[in-house]
Design brief:
This protein is an alpha/beta fold. The protein has helices at 41-49, 70-75, 92-102, 108-118, 134-146, 164-178, 190-196, 217-220, 226-234; strands at residues 3-12, 15-25, 30-34, 56-61, 64-65, 77-80, 152-156, 182-186, 199-204, 207-213. Bound molecules: adenosine-5'-triphosphate (ATP).
Length: 235
């Protein structure tokens, strides 16, 4: 089931950050959510995750309205926030056990072991979060987001600051997850979008300015590639 956003508005102290955006992210597809700095990507993702309230409009996750039934919507949602906030003093295992308890995951040891294997955290699983490299912290962030096996995943810049090897690993993990789940992914890296995304939504100054399947780019636009289109539409 999808993410559906309809005429969504969000203002901060009277300043509009989202000006009535509408888009859908579909199951079994990875939707790249692109836009320049300050365009409204994180704001949209925070609203969808229930971290902040919208000023107007509606949104649903897995068919559940996030304003009417926030808790039920959250059960189907995994969220990796920008900057991936984690408790530095906790061990990787403790972090995941804590999240498993929050979600009341049955057979939590088995599920944690599964997710550690899936995210390649095995070699680092006995370290504290503060002792991890950025790439491994990102893996923990993704692990905590997928622990309850949600149908919908929202990943806010999941690969920012990773080295090329880590990039490859995390991208292939995201591709793997995207085969079954609805994934909304924000990034500034156009190569990443071309490598992992099926659909593209571009937001600029709080408005959606493009929304298309990536394989239709050349049919719809005269630009040679995604980067050229992005620059033309947002500068
Ligand atoms: N807590 C806040 N209080 C006031 N204004 C905010 C707050 N958070 C975001 N904004 C403003 O809302 C607008 C959208 O910001 P947002 O963080 O959603 O953009 P973004 O597309 O995620 O940017 P980036 O690519 O830089 O992460 C910006 O003008 C930003 O300054």
């Amino acid at each position: 089931m999808s993410i559906h956003v309809s005429n969504l508005h969000k203002s901060y102290n009277g300043h509009p950050a989202l000006k009535g955006i509408t888009f859908t992210a579909k199951p079994g597809r990875i939707t790249g959510f692109l836009g320049p700095n300050g365009a409204g990507k994180s704001t949209t993702m925070k609203v969808l995750s229930g971290s902040i309230s919208p000023t107007g409009g509606s949104a649903s996750v897995y068919g559940i309205d996030i304003r009417q039934n926030a808790l039920a919507a959250r059960r189907h949602l995994g969220y990796l926030p920008e900057n991936n906030p984690l408790y530095g003093d906790l061990y990787v295992h403790e972090t995941l056990a804590f999240i498993a308890a929050l979600h009341q995951i049955p057979q939590k040891k088995t599920r944690i072991a599964e997710v550690i294997a899936l995210t390649g955290l095995g070699p680092e699983q006995h370290k504290k979060i503060d002792q991890l490299s950025k790439g491994y912290r990102q893996r923990v962030g993704i692990a905590q987001a997928i622990l309850h096996n949600p149908d919908v995943l929202i990943l806010d810049e999941p690969t920012s600051g990773l080295d090329p090897n880590q990039l490859q690993d995390i991208r292939s993990l995201i591709r793997h997850l995207g085969k079954e789940k609805t994934v909304l992914l924000s990034t500034h890296i156009m190569q990443e979008v071309e490598a992992v995304c099926d659909d593209v939504v571009i937001i600029h100054q709080g408005e959606i300015i493009a929304d298309f399947p990536l394989n239709e780019l050349s049919g719809r636009y005269a630009d040679n590639n995604l980067e050229a289109l992005f620059v033309r539409l947002t500068s």
